[in-house]
Amino acid sequence: MGRYRIAVLAGDGIGPEVVAEALKVLRAGADPARLALDFDLAETGAGCYQRTGEDLPRETLEVSQAADAILFGAAGLPEVRLPDGTEVAPQLTLRVLLDLYIGLRPIKLYPGVRSPLRLAEAERVDYVILRENTEGLYASRGAGVRVGNQVVTDTLVVTRAGTARICRQAFDLARRRAGAPRDGQRRVTCVDKSNVLKSYAFFRAVFDEVAADYPEVEAEHAYIDAMAMYLVQAPSRYDVIVAENMFGDILSDLAAATVGGLGLAPSGDIGDHCGLFQPSHGTAPDIADKGVANPLATILSAALMLDWLGRRTGDGDAEAAARRIEAAVAAVLAAGRVLTPDLGGSASTAAVGDAVAAAL
Question: pLDDT tens-digit profile of 47-91?
């Protein structure tokens, strides 16, 4: 029997609401005879910062480091700022401290969900964005230079080691997948701006070096501005997309909008030894405590967590539980009876969680 200790960091805004539903589903989906999950709750986020002066207390970091995986809600509030003017973002700090260099962003259109795109009948959208999480433009977080009130600079960082490892992860993922929905081709698309900046030309060059080790996977390139158009025009053509930190961040939100919105966008921040799983959305303070937040992105993130734990440890029961949870979410979406307002329904956050648990 697999037994895993999960650090639970609910955070701010709607974070606690959607995490509660994910925990409900995890408890319903884990067969106690085959899969044991122990949850350790810890504080983090803007509210924690207001009370204690820290957004990621030492105790929370220790709980996170000791856990087999981290389930994260959402953190940060627009009105709570650090001395440098930026928002509290402990999830970004954890990416660096735990070396969670893989930003895994699955983009999938489930049956029953309406897309704003004009898709052909039976056209499927099912691709994954891999965002390099620890370098790029975000490497300047907390380290940019401000000269008086006139000049500010942030430095974009691209290293050979950092680029090679995220590109290798992209090709390894493509090997495990069934290929792009449109043509079944296993394909990795490198997104950059190599026609303008040396840093992105270097990113592309390292990508090409890695691609040579995967002759069975098609490797291609796209500029970031063109890619924003392609994901609207022909999303079914894509399989795995790899990009620098900022570009991956922007594409992830655009892509989520094409498959039902951020309420259906799970994510994982993964390293070689640790994984943090959270919805791609933020804290949404305008709807916090109203019981209308969509918990499905968090529930799907919990399924990603079980899948990662299962593959990492060879635990087929954890992988099977992940598949059951995703299938339960798909069943609720296909039925269309219990949906939150963002998906055109009137159900509460808790009612959606109940529906997924019941579908299990």
Answer: 999 999 999 999 999 999 999 999 999 999 999 999 888 899 999
Annotation says 108 is catalytic:
no
**Residue 306 contacts residue 324 (beta carbons within 8 Å):** no
Query: How many Å apart are CA 298 and CA 264, to the nearest integer?
Result: 8
Q: How far is it, in rounded angstroms, from Cα 21 to Cα 15?
A: 10
What pLDDT, on a 0 to 100 scale, did the predictor assign at position 142?
Answer: 77
Confidence of residue 354 (pLDDT cuts 50, 70, 90): very high
Q: How would you class 33 by CB atoms within 10 Å of its CB: exposed for 0-12, middle for 13-18, buried for 19 or more?
A: exposed
Name, in order, each residue with C-beta under 8 angstroms of 273's C-beta and a sequence gap of 6 or more: 98, 99
Residues 40, 99, 193, 317: which is the catalytic one? 193
Closest to 270 (Cα-Cα) out of 75, 99, 30, 22: 99
Runs of H (alpha helix) within 125-274: 160-176, 198-211, 224-233, 245-257
Closest CA to 36 of 11, 1, 12: 1
In order of their start, the domains of the chain are 1-103+264-360 (3.40.718.10), 115-259 (3.40.718.10)
Residue tagged active-site, from 55, 239, 249, 269: 249
CA-to-CA distance for 215 and 9, rounded, in angstroms? 41
Query: CB count, 10 Å around CB of 178?
Result: 11
253 given a catalytic annotation: yes
- From the list 49, 138, 200, 238, the catalytic residue is 138
Catalytic site residue 68? Answer: no
User: Encoding tokens for residue 83?
Assistant: 């001395």
Mean pLDDT of 292-306: 98
Task: Quote the mean pLDDT of the chain.
Answer: 96
